[in-house]
Design goal:
Keywords: Membrane, Transmembrane, Transmembrane helix
Strand content: under 5%
Order of helices and strands: HHH
Number of domains: 1
Structural class: mainly alpha
Subcellular location: Membrane
GO molecular function: protein folding chaperone
Distance between the termini: 81 Å
Protein name: Protein Asterix
Main location: membrane
Length: 98
């Protein structure tokens, strides 16, 4: 018996992989949002802004590659978000933070 499939209708299988790398400006946006929300949280005394800053900072650090890292780019968002959270919860006027 011969093969009933037609040779012209056979499609070869190929594997599609989704790109998991962050886009071009995504890392800079996480860093920028972390700094902006950190300043807003410290100046306006909003704890929610400080927590958003901390989440953006963690997202920035988790997607950071070794070739993009320098001390200044890592230290700015981390120090600002941590300083704001420490001031909000352990500062002398911590009961004023709403």
């Amino acid at each position: 018996m011969s093969d009933p499939r037609k040779e012209s209708l056979i499609v070869e299988r190929f594997e599609m992989r989704a790109s998991t790398e962050p886009k071009e400006g995504e890392l800079e946006l996480y860093s920028l949002f972390s700094i902006i929300f950190g300043f807003l949280g410290i100046m306006l005394k909003y704890k929610i802004c400080l927590w958003v800053s901390a989440v953006c900072c963690v997202a920035y650090l988790s997607n950071l590659k070794s070739k993009d890292s320098s001390v200044r780019t890592i230290l700015s968002p981390v120090s600002l978000s941590l300083m704001g959270l420490v001031m909000a919860y352990f500062g002398p006027n911590s009961n004023l933070f709403v």
